[in-house]
Amino acid sequence: MAAVTGTPPAAGSGAEPVAVTGWGRTAPTAARLLHPRSYTEAVDAVRACARPGARGAIARGLGRAYGDAAQNAGGAVLDMTGLDRVHVIDSANGLVLCDAGVSLHRLMEVLLPLGWFVPVTPGTRYVTVGGAIGADIHGKNHHGAGSFTRHVVSMELLTADGEVRTIEPGTPLFDATAGGMGLTGVILTATIRLLPVETSLMRVDTERATDLDDLMDRLTASDHRYRYSVAWIDLLARGASLGRAVLTRGDHAPLDALPARARRAPLAFRPGRLPGAPALVPDGLLGRRSVGLFNAFWYRRAPRAMTGELQRLSTFFHPLDGVPHWNRIYGRSGFVQYQFVVGHGRQEALRRIVRRISERRCPSFLAVLKRFGEAGPGWLSFPAPGWTLALDIPANLPGLGAFLDELDEEVAGAGGRVYLAKDSRLRPELLAAMYPRLDDFRALRADLDPGAVFTSDLSRRLGL
Amino acid sequence: MKDAFGTPQSLLILGGTSEIALATARRLIARRTRAVWLAGRPSPGLDAAAEELRGLGADARTVPFDALDHGSHEEVLGKAFAAGGPGGDVDMVLLAFGVLGDQAHDESDPVAAARVAQTNYTGAVSAGLVCAKALQAQGHGSLVVLSSVAGERARRANFIYGSSKAGLDAFAQGLGDALHGTGVHVMVVRPGFVHTRMTAGRTAAPLATTPAAVAEAIETGLLRRTETVWVPGSLRYLMSALRHVPRPVFRRLPM
């Protein structure tokens, strides 16, 4: 099946439906893939998708949402990566105005030499600005900087009526669009406030935590001293080592921290790249044994404590971007990512969940824990103050669906929520408990887009 | 919509009183399925089945459906697709109707024999194509077709039924290939001897199974997006051996 992940095939008008999946490669559905090259083409495409029986449209960037957020079965998917111009860089004030289809990778390429960095980056550079707003992404600096849309000064949104509106923070339409999973319209451009940096290197402290309590104590005690902070957890460790982890925290290195040789080109951006994962990988490669061995190796490989190590940006922020198509290593069944947040003071719920995942022997080698800071105003925005854990699990693990449903109950019971940009299996009944502004979101959509022109598999599945 | 594990939120069953289909519905309702359409000839049994599924928490409705009335399929099944389930679609169609017939009697009653073939094969061709078209238009969905090991190699004891299932099986495989890449998944399920009303009073074959086991295999097949499911799984190897047994020998096998 010609599943679309990343670069689309060279289809002209996209009249023929193609199978589309998210990054997790589960639940393919067929849609007409359209490639608008100008704002006018985007407007025309949206108007055409508003015809009765057309099953609507959804914008798609680089396809890094794990689940079905950028799929639209039987309808149209607007591939926005053709709209990728950086219009204005205001180097004096640290602002950039760009198309929504520009990737964070591209922004880093053009901004770093000028001494600016994107305000928030997730674990991959290959997300578009539109996707970053639609999912209201967060990064390792959430405890200080908040999520992506906090740094958006304004944006242009193409709505279901074919009009382009300029929207600014503090308005209901902005708050519905920030984290709104593309369901309020197509973001065409955005103006983003940037972060000044002196170098393109990171100064990183690494330490090991022996168990979950040790980890939470270390994070609570000293997170505020670092701009960026994240912990990798070994979820296959049991008993006394339950929740053992490697913490990596740091900040952009100042110029005087660089050795003399590196000071000649302090803002050079040179991400490394390895060969991609092969297209055909047998299912079950990542079983308990292989992941267990990897995790033990990864934990022991990390230094017990190391300070001030200089790392490339790409090594610190985006280690997996070095392996193109790494999502293929899970085989044809694909994988699901489970990410949730529970509030401060809900450590007991977090402990219980970590214990259950460990007892269930879920083979997850990408398990990440971090502390969130203040929430943004987005109605469906995911981050909220507290603890967030993200893990990847092969989708073909028997009984996984029922197990994750139980975790959902635990999360919702603790007042937490799961991340819609990563979801592919949440029970719709739990959504309102997790997102208290859901009714406002639905009401605004009903008003703004009565014909449900903007529709995705995610919105159908969860009744957004 | 189906979720990452292929579990449907809405289900259309053709052959709404089939025990295998209802066991599957129960299993899926325990997961994600909230809307079920039971298509079948109107009967107290069909209503009772819907009532039972409602008791499990599903929004279950019945649609009058007659496999032999090909002309009505488009309209009748179109209704279920137009109303859909949560999200407005039918996420999975389970084609489960069929009759066993009475081989001994039917061999001397060609009209009765033809009825078996028309129900199991031509009825399925017509209904299957109607559903395939609707699923393709919505860009996703699973069409699960209940075939049988009897269709794998014709046996003296039930070749009328077996040949109808052979036709159905070949049709479903071809349809699966035709729909490859359209977002629609066609899965052929080949159970062995299943303990149901249909087989009551007959001597169970080796490796006999139950509707619940078939339902479980269907759920696993949805998860893995499998194209062919044998129930029990070991039948795959038994049948691939039997397929190559020379006919003079096959004829004499006690089965």
Task: Please tag this protein with its features.
heterodimer, A: 464 residues, alpha+beta, 8-stranded antiparallel sheet, 5-stranded antiparallel sheet, 25% helix, 23% strand, globular, B: 255 residues, alpha/beta, 7-stranded parallel sheet, 7 strands
How would you describe this structure to a colleague?
The complex is a heterodimer of chains A (464) and B (255). Chain A contains 13 helices and 19 strands. Chain A has 464 residues and is an alpha+beta fold. Chain A has helices spanning 39-49, 104-111, 129-134, 142-145, 172-177, 212-222, 288-301, 313-317, 347-360, 400-413, 431-434, 438-448, 457-462; strands spanning 17-20, 29-34, 57-60, 76-79, 86-90, 95-99, 116-117, 152-158, 164-167, 186-193, 195-196, 201-209, 228-233, 245-252, 305-312, 335-343, 367-372, 386-394, 417-418. In chain A, the strands form four sheets. In chain A, strands 15-12-14-13-17-18-16-19 form an eight-stranded antiparallel sheet. With 255 residues, chain B is of the alpha/beta class. Helices cover 45% and strands 15% of the residues of chain B. Chain B contains nine helices and seven strands. Chain B has helices at residues 19-29, 44-55, 73-83, 103-106, 110-138, 159-178, 211-224, 235-242, 247-252, and strands at 10-14, 35-40, 59-64, 92-95, 141-146, 184-191, 228-231. Chains A and B meet through strand 1, strand 2, helix 10 and helix 13 of A and helix 5 and helix 7 of B.
